[in-house]
Amino acid sequence: MCTIGQYQAAMANDRLEIVFVLGRPGSGKETVCKKIEEEFGYVHFSAGELLRQERTRADSPYKECIDEHFRKGLFIPPHITCSVMETAVSRSKSSKFLFDAFPICMHNLEAWNKGDLSKKATLRFVLFLDCPQEVCERRILQRGAAGSGRDDDVATKLGNRFKIYREQSLPVVEYFERQKLLRKVDTNKSPEEVYQEVRRVFQTGDKE
């Protein structure tokens, strides 16, 4: 983990600043990211949303692959996800980014570590939104009923989504915890309480 001094030196050299935001489906990543974006000046990129946008582009070389993987409830190949994320960053004028739901598996993390973007960026810390599965399930179903437009916000796909999270996403969380980069926030609270804790993390996040 970089020290505060190393972090400040990196910023002085115009490196990009990245915060990964991880958590179970329905743990509140999008809601929290929007508030961070407003207060702290980060640009929020949701890996899932960027892939859904890419999926709608008729000229995208990744369209068919993304369609197939979404239909089957599988993770998109890491080189595609990384390419889409890198393109989004390159088009932005910002130097501070929130990567929501990325890296979502160890293959994503390996692709990130090998990519050009990771060499230009300083990973400040990893924000982990911790919420019980039953609460997340309820939120997802409410979101789907309210017209989220996501084809996986339905009861029939919940079991597979959480199974994939346990088997493929949780190892990424555990990896960053071992690296002492993980900053955990309990999101099974009111939105106001959750964000106050998130604010504290962003104000002092370089310290464990």
UniProtKB/TrEMBL annotation:
<dbReference type="GO" id="GO:0005524">
    <property type="term" value="F:ATP binding"/>
</dbReference>
<keyword id="KW-0808">Transferase</keyword>
<dbReference type="InterPro" id="IPR027417">
    <property type="entry name" value="P-loop_NTPase"/>
</dbReference>
<keyword id="KW-0418">Kinase</keyword>
<protein>
    <recommendedName>
        <fullName>UMP-CMP kinase</fullName>
    </recommendedName>
</protein>
<dbReference type="GO" id="GO:0019205">
    <property type="term" value="F:nucleobase-containing compound kinase activity"/>
</dbReference>
<dbReference type="Pfam" id="PF00406">
    <property type="entry name" value="ADK"/>
</dbReference>
<dbReference type="GO" id="GO:0006139">
    <property type="term" value="P:nucleobase-containing compound metabolic process"/>
</dbReference>
<comment type="similarity">
    <text>Belongs to the adenylate kinase family.</text>
</comment>
<keyword id="KW-0547">Nucleotide-binding</keyword>
<dbReference type="InterPro" id="IPR000850">
    <property type="entry name" value="Adenylat/UMP-CMP_kin"/>
</dbReference>
